[in-house]
Fold this sequence. Notes:
By secondary structure, this protein is an alpha/beta fold.
Amino acid sequence: MTARLGSVSLVGAGPGDPELLTVRAVRRLEEAEVVLHDALVPNAVVEVATTAKRLCVGKRAGQPSCAQEEIVRLMIRLARQGRQVVRLKCGDPFVLGRGGEEAVALARAGIPCEVVPGVSAALAAPAAAGIPVTHRGLASAFVVVSGHAPEACGPVLASIEPATATLVVLMGLRSAGRIAALLMARGWQPDTPAAVVAAAWTAEQEVWAGTLEALGRSALPLGLPGTIIIGATAGFAQRRGSVAAQGQGGMTW
Ligand SMILES: C[S@@+](CC[C@H](N)C(=O)[O-])C[C@H]1O[C@@H](n2cnc3c(N)ncnc32)[C@H](O)[C@@H]1O
């Protein structure tokens, strides 16, 4: 008798608040036998999977983690054992999170795989600070880049006319100074509004608000996942100030 083949759901965990999981994500977590989650996914979200075996396979900047190939091998092995596997990735699985590579590897191995989109930090972090990324009259576009390697995002940032879009930078806290310098060298005004939203939608949420020039020389919360927002729309965070004291993350209008 041939063993039943399992499957893998690549599920977006959203920014960290279980209430921002999609209905389908909750269903997959409740039905899962094994959940392989990123380190950035808070316990409150992982624990939605009440009956599954839960394994942290993710990485946080600078800390040891499972190699990507290991994670893929583990997913394939578990699925071939007939398990219903959830690969739980922060935000949206296909936004700067290597979800595409995982989907391709699973398809090549003949493992049934689905994607459950999640609320990306690219939108959830600005929203948590009350920043409407395409506020009419201020920005009619927003551009999402990874700041992890400034040499990679540099050409994208350099190609955007100053003050024509809201820039949203993920994985950019350590490169904030270099990104600010690059933009100012390209003609962005030093007093362009800028904001950093760290650990959005969690109890640790912090909002920094200032200017592009100040962004480059400010102490940012490097121990937390943070998203940088640059452009006129980031001025909304300035007017609102820090919301860290609200505890639950998010804001009300
Ligand atoms: C590897 S990327 C993954 C992005 C994810 N796939 C998404 O769609 O949100 C991780 C980066 O997302 C951002 N991020 C994730 N969760 C966040 C949160 N709760 N608050 C602010 N930024 C967050 C940070 O820039 C972090 O370094």
